[in-house]
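Recap from last week: sequence in, structure out.
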Amino acid sequence: MSFAETFVGIMGPALSGLILMLSDVSDGLLITSACYLICMGLFTKLNLAGEKETPRQTKLAAEFLEGWHAFFANKPLMLMTVFVVFLNCTYTVINTSAIYFAKDHLRLSSSLLAVVLSASGAGGLAGSLILRRLRQAWGLGKVFGASIVLNAYAYALLFLTKGPLLFAVALFLCGFAATLYSVMVYAFRQEQTPAALMGRITGITGTCFRIGMPLAVYASGWVIAWWGTGVIFMACALWNLVTLAVYVRTRLWNVP
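Predicted structure tokens:
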């Protein structure tokens, strides 16, 4: 599934680049609308056969509390969620800042930027191809730690970037690390959660994962306005290294 998703992720920026090369960029909206209609037509042909579960006659509040109690009782999952909250802040800020950096400092055209951004998708594709072997060799905990190291290194490269080539290399590493990071997080959550509580735990952790994102993006806007994107890149790299130093001292580091 990760392979399929990252493959589509590669095609997205490439198609965006082609659309931006059209004489009228607004035609891209019509193309996107047509693609949605095609997807809707394909979706109507999808038939799923299976037994329907009998809905439980319980109150929403009671189910919500049951999910919270299960989440708080699962200390490893809570600990992983805390690390994801902090790491997602840097990941979101980098994704936003990189585009402004490419346009304002590297002076990349919109079409070239779309092509360069596909390097991130290529990195994600490469990560999905070797992810299974990495987990078998190192274990989930160490692969997750490796994703933090790679992200820190990629952010440092963005800080040093002076041209599109190094920018593409940094984005490739970001995409590679993002695949390791996201798949390990979701795999850990699924392995730690009983099937009956999967929906509620997914909703709770998914919400927690995004708690710091709005504040981080808002603060990064002021930082970029005052000191530029270079400060953002180096600060995110150092943030990941500090998080890694704490992470390796927890029980999550040795999760198989």
